[in-house]
Design a protein that fits this description.
The chain is α+β, with helices and mostly antiparallel strands. It is built from 18 helices and 22 strands.
Length: 616
């Protein structure tokens, strides 16, 4: 059922049952989706918020026109339906978090003659406990950051001097490296340690990384005291430093709980509608994961936390812990606790280990929020500086960058990346196949893709404030023609040319030029200061457009190769010759037997085979 959302809306018809509510704005646009154990009670609470300035939700007061309710049989069904609606309708005021794709680990490959510790990424959090990899490898971790992994490895090498060089260096070295005299490597490369003794070091390293370091710690303490008793104070200092390194390795990061409860700690920091949530995951008394998520939300703290927790654990992308530690009680806490699972406890601590870990999580959230604010200040400075250079009345909110990618004129593709408020907006990224240009003509290709992009922007009311073209005056001229054809007359455009060195033939000296931008109607390019904020921003736009285009081109190139390489008798050289001659697989497919046979290395028999395989 749907009812108008007004201050005096009659909620008596809303059922007191579990379900999902959907706030809608003008023209039925979905603004926000939520779940409730009691739909009437939840909507009544929102109406009270409208009159309470402390908890006022602006989009519900200004934009919401109606609210639709959908009754479910159970609270679990409400949770699943909410998740489905958020994914399909993508409401702007719901929190959507991306899952992390890998975990930072240390791997020990036991198949190697002299195993070494490697910094790797694993794609499963189950690797948090040491496990066999093919029966002969062990993974340790995960660790909260790359910095933490490197500091752990650095400290561990002072205690257990394993080699860290690759096999090719190990097998060809004739004398120890500089790490050996520093006590950081036992130099197995030149036979200064045997395989048996080295295996003992490997076993020590594995025990330390697994958290069982008591024997190693006692051994180092004994060596330190024995050296001090013999008045070998410099040697005692070495053992002391190694003992400190060992303790630093096994200490972990931050305040660790004393028990082994599967516990997640979630805190947040916010300023305005900017919110940063930080999650610490503790497993078996160790920090298994540390992740930050940033988003915008106008909801009060309890409502926001309810939505954030739902987004964190929806769809089974993360393991639901036994205990969830939070700074304030989430809205509708019994419902949230029920949908997460019967065994989950949501705790707001007042003292002890839980409070210390919560404060650690909150500090991480505040640091990240401050970093983002500083980054935003830099980006706003860059956009203001860019507006002054280009002659815009205001800093550009939306900036699009274009790039062309091809291989000897074949399989030409292009990319458009979009930056919004100085940040990459992945929803605005687009890929294009060049359709109407034969061979290698970057200018015509640029004109086509810019025209297609701007026409769509005109139709959908989604035009950028500034377009950045990768190239100089000629590329810019092609883009300006496209702008005229598309009717996007108010969109500003510039060309960005890379810094280069030019050879002065008479003086025989190299003259370097900085990054330059070309403006419409201006013959002379404007050189950008090397350390200017506007230059750094434009380089980011150009580099991202280039990366996006290259990624797409490699994908397309691989698809073309699979089509031509499947033809008996066509190898890499003949495939290249065909693509250069006809421009694309479609061009090869349209060619006659005589045209195909005229390509060097392609006879009539092979030409007929090519036609058969390409469907002629």
């Amino acid at each position: 059922m749907s009812i108008p959302w007004t201050a005096d809306a009659d909620l008596s018809g809303v059922p007191e049952r579990p379900g999902v509510y959907v706030f809608k704005g003008a023209e039925g646009k979905v603004l926000y989706v939520g779940k409730a154990a009691n739909l009437r009670a939840r909507l009544s609470n929102y109406r009270r918020m409208a009159t309470d300035e402390r908890q006022n939700v602006r989009f519900m007061e200004k934009d919401a026109r109606e609210v639709e309710t959908i009754v479910t049989r159970t609270e679990k069904e409400a949770f699943l339906l909410e998740d489905s609606l958020i994914k399909t309708r993508k409401p702007p005021h719901n929190i959507r978090l991306k899952d992390d794709k890998s975990f930072l680990m240390i791997r020990l490959d036991l198949d190697e003659r002299f195993p070494r510790l490697k910094f790797v990424r694993a794609h499963s959090p189950k690797a948090a406990e040491p496990s066999a990899r093919g029966g002969r490898s062990r993974l340790f971790g995960p660790y909260a950051s790359a910095r933490r992994v490197r500091s752990t490895l650095e400290a561990l090498h002072r205690v257990v001097p394993l080699r860290d060089c690759p096999d090719i260096v190990l097998n060809h070295r004739t004398r120890p490296c500089l790490r050996h005299p520093l006590g950081l490597c036992s130099a197995p490369c030149v036979g200064l340690i045997g395989e048996g003794d080295y295996a003992q070091l490997v076993d020590k390293a594995a025990r330390v990384l697994a958290g069982d370091a008591s024997d190693v710690e006692r051994e180092l303490e004994r060596e330190m005291r024995e050296s001090a008793r013999r008045h070998e104070f410099e040697r005692a200092a070495v053992w002391r430093d190694r003992l400190a390194a060992l303790r630093g390795t096994i200490e972990g990061q931050g305040a660790l709980p004393r028990d082994k409860t599967r516990r997640d700690v979630v805190h947040f920091a916010r300023r305005g509608d900017e919110v940063v949530v930080h999650r610490l995951a503790f497993r078996d008394g160790r920090l298994a994961e540390s992740r930050t998520h940033a988003f915008r939300s106008q909801l009060p703290d309890g409502e926001m936390l309810h939505s954030a927790i739902t987004a964190l654990y929806a769809g089974g992308v993360r393991e639901v812990p036994e205990e969830l530690v939070v700074p304030v009680e989430p809205a509708d806490c019994p419902l949230l606790q029920g949908v997460l699972g019967a065994g989950v406890r949501i705790v707001v601590p007042r003292s002890g280990d839980r409070l210390r870990t919560l404060e650690l999580s909150g500090e991480n959230a505040r640091v990240e929020l401050l970093r983002r604010e500083r980054e935003s200040d830099v980006e706003q400075t860059a956009l203001a500086e860019l507006a002054g250079i280009v002659g815009l009345q205001a800093p550009p909110e939306v900036v699009d960058g274009f790039d062309i990618s091809n291989l000897q004129g074949t399989n030409v593709v292009a990319s458009r990346v979009r930056f919004r408020s100085g940040h990459p907006d992945k929803n605005g990224y687009r890929r294009f196949k060049v359709r109407n240009v034969e061979g290698q003509d970057d200018f015509a290709s640029m004109k086509e893709v810019v025209c297609r992009s701007l026409r769509r922007g005109v139709d959908e009311g989604d035009l950028p404030d500034l377009v950045v073209i990768d190239g100089g005056a000629a590329q810019l001229a092609s883009a300006l023609e496209a702008r005229e054809e598309a009717g996007a007359f108010d969109v500003a455009m510039i060309g960005l040319a890379k810094a280069r060195s030019e050879r002065n033939v008479k003086g025989k000296r190299a003259v370097a030029s900085e990054e330059r931008i070309f403006l419409p109607g201006k013959e002379e390019a404007i050189e950008l200061p090397r350390h200017g904020a506007a230059r750094h921003f434009l380089e980011r736009v150009r580099d991202e457009a280039h990366r996006f285009a290259i990624t797409y081109h490699r994908k397309e190139r691989g698809r073309i190769r699979s089509q031509l390489d499947s033809i008996p008798g066509v190898g890499s050289a003949k495939r290249r010759a065909l693509l250069v001659r006809f421009g694309s697989v479609q061009g090869v497919a349209k060619a006659s037997v005589e045209e195909l046979a005229a390509v060097p290395g392609i006879g009539r028999d092979l030409a007929r085979t090519i036609q058969e395989h390409l469907g002629r």
